[in-house]
Structures are given as C-alpha cells and as structure tokens.
Design brief:
Number of domains: 2
Radius of gyration: 19 Å
Distance between the termini: 35 Å
Structural class: alpha/beta
Helix content: 25-40%
CATH architecture of the largest domain: 3-Layer(aba) Sandwich
Strand content: 15-25%
CATH class of the largest domain: Alpha Beta
CATH superfamily of the largest domain: Thiamin diphosphate (ThDP)-binding fold, Pyr/PP domains
Number of strands: 14
Strand order of the largest sheet: 2-1-3-4-6-5-12
Length: 305
C-alpha cells in the first residue's frame, strides 16, 4: 500500500504535462527520478531544485506570475514548514495560484525521525487565506483532486499519505464529492472523519448512535453540511478525527455552530513528541488514532457504555 497515492500523483501529473501547456512540475529531489520520462519530453516544465525548498516555492511563485500553473512537490515538513515564509510572501502576498503536493503526511516516514514528520502542516497553512486543503483518503480521490487543481488557478494543498481507506468515500457516482459526505446516520453525535482515518472511524463507531461525516477536503470547511447533521440535536456534540494535529479544525466547528450551545472533541496527532522512531502503525496507536483508541475516546466523550 505504501506510496500508492504518490505513484498516482506521478502518473497523473505526467499525463497532465502532455495536455496542459501551462503546467509545470517542480521537485526538490524527492520523487524527481520518477519524472525522468516527463522531463525528457518537457525539459523546460519539469524542474528539480535539489534540497532547496525555499527556492522551490519562490520559483513556483515566479512561474505563476508568468502565467504558468506550477505543481510543487516534496515531503510535508519541507514543503510547508521549512519554506512557510515563501508561501506567505511569494504565493499569498503576490496573489498567485499554485498546487503544493506533499508526501509523508504526519508520520508515514516515522523511521526517519522528527525531521520527516509534519503533524502541524494543515494548522500552519490554515493561518493563510484562500487555500483549498485536500486530505484524500484514497488514491482515486487524490487523482480527482489533482486533476481539478491542475485545471484551476487558485491555491491548493494536496496532502498525500501512505495510509488509505479501502474505498474512495469521497467519490460518488464517479465524481469527486467536495463537501462532507454522510457515511452513517445517528442521533447522539456527529463524528467527522478526515481522509485516510475514515475506515478506522467507521470501525470505532460500529453500533454507536452517531452520524459519521467524511471529509476529503477540510478547507473550505463544510459548515452547511455540519449544521444540517446536528439539526435534530438539542445540544450538538461533534467529534473531529483528523490525521494531523489534534484540534486543528475545532475553530471551524466553533464558527459553524457559533450560535448554538455545543460540545466538540478534537482527536488527532498529539502535541507531545514521540521520541521513539517506531512504525506508522505504532504512532497511530500511541496517538489513539487506531479503531480501539478512537472508540474509547468517542464513548468517553458521549458518556456511553
């Protein structure tokens, strides 16, 4: 399963380069070799900048100013955290669009240590306006989101992961479903499952009287769907299950339900650093993001047995 989303990204981007004259792919060594064929056909639109991620983003901004549609790619900590100043100034401040495609997610590359972990990327990017943030839970969703981003002009962050759901919950009738999608209905609470954690959430909430909403896009946040889901609850209870920093979207829930008395629990990657390397599966368990840990948290929050 490892790398399936990234492989799909390479395949689809290579196809798009042949049909979209404005498109350019920028890498920082990561995955660069997989674009060798595309680079031979489009040497002026497939560019590798080495391990110089600040330059990667600045070059993306320059290409966008020149009318190109840049797709920049690296591991999440090197694509979002390291060059954040360039994202803020060379993309947002210049009012240009770009597509940033990361790999590694929060701890997919846990064996490489803290330098390759980025649970705070979505929270950090959420401090800037105008970003669409896609967190696909399946390669089919990632492909649909990438194709849509390539055709657009805005700012898009596509967060790829080695983790995957068994099915593409965000694809309905062969088309990408942009808003929250209802996977299960109940009355006691609403659980929002983001991206690759949907299957774990479904397993964790089996037999519980809860609605499960699925989100493959977290910015913009689908406040309309959330309000509709809690409409019959006297005091809405919302559980957010996100594959990055716990509580990242709690302010979005607060804004959506600001006129209602409500409770919210934000589950995700904890703030405390896990200093043992471990496997991604061990990290998920340690953060309570496996099905057993999620069930304990949800049941405790709802006060159910």
């Amino acid at each position: 399963m490892a790398g399936i989303m990234r492989e799909r990204f390479v395949d689809v981007s290579t196809q798009l380069l042949d049909t979209h004259d404005r498109l350019a792919v920028l890498t920082a060594d990561l995955t660069s070799a997989l674009f060798d064929g595309a680079r031979e056909r489009h040497p002026d639109r497939v560019l590798n900048f080495g391990i110089r991620e600040q330059l990667l983003i600045s070059a993306a901004g320059g290409l966008a100013l020149a009318g190109m549609r840049p797709i920049a790619h690296s591991f999440a900590p090197f694509l979002i955290e390291r060059p954040f100043e360039q994202i803020k100034l060379d993309l947002n401040h210049q009012a240009v669009g770009a597509v940033l495609v990361s790999a590694g997610a929060s701890y997919d590359i846990s064996s490489s240590g803290r330098t390759h972990q980025s649970p705070g990327d979505v929270a950090l990017l959420s401090t800037l306006p105008d970003w669409t943030i896609d967190v696909p839970g399946h390669a089919d969703e990632a492909e649909a989101q990438l194709r849509e981003a390539a055709d657009g002009d805005g700012l898009v962050y596509l967060r790829l992961s080695n983790q995957s759901n068994a099915h593409a919950h965000g694809i309905a009738d062969g088309r990408l479903h942009r808003g929250f999608r209802t996977l299960r209905q109940g009355t006691a609470a609403v659980v929002i499952a983001v991206g690759p954690l949907a299957d774990a959430v479904l397993a964790a909430t089996e037999g519980l009287d809860v609605t499960v909403l699925y989100a493959a896009t977290v910015r913009p946040f689908d406040a309309v769907a959330l309000r509709a889901a809690v409409a019959d609850q006297r005091e809405p209870a919302v559980v957010l299950v996100e594959p990055y920093l716990a509580g990242t979207s709690v302010p979005e829930v607060a804004d959506a339900l600001g006129d209602l008395s409500h409770r919210v629990l934000g589950l995700g990657v904890g703030r405390d650093e896990l200093r043992n390397y471990g496997s991604p599966r061990q990290h998920a368990i340690a953060h309570g993001l496996d099905s057993a840990g999620l069930r304990r948290a949800v049941v405790g929050f709802l006060g159910q047995k």
